[in-house]
Amino acid sequence: MIEYVVMIIAVLGCVLALIQRDLLKAAILTGITGACIAYLFQFLLAPDVALTQAIVGAAIVPVFLALAISKTHRMDDND
């Protein structure tokens, strides 16, 4: 039963990341989605895949996205 809740959270995290206007929030939501998918892999008894997903999907990708966002400059509609 808990796996269905985690699946719904993962899908909602993806959809919310797509519709976010703030890119930093989108990066955080991709981390939440990656953590949910890592939990699902662990639930499906694939600990090696779950560990890789947790490291890459929940840690490295959101950090790299946040770093890339911090290096860019925001442009307003008036510019």
TrEMBL record:
* Residue intervals passing through the bilayer: 50-69
- Membrane topology qualifier: Multi-pass membrane protein
The main location is membrane
Entries under Pfam families matching the protein: MbhD (PF13244)
Arranged from A to Z, the UniProt key words for this protein are:
Cell membrane, Membrane, Transmembrane, Transmembrane helix
Signal sequence bounds: none
Q: What Gene Ontology terms describe where this protein resides (cellular component)?
A: plasma membrane
Domain (MrpA C-terminal/MbhD): give its ranges: 9-74
Q: Which residues form a coiled coil?
A: none
Q: Where in the cell is it found?
A: Cell membrane
NCBIfam families registered for this protein in UniProt: PRK06280.1
- Protein name per Swiss-Prot or TrEMBL: MrpA C-terminal/MbhD domain-containing protein
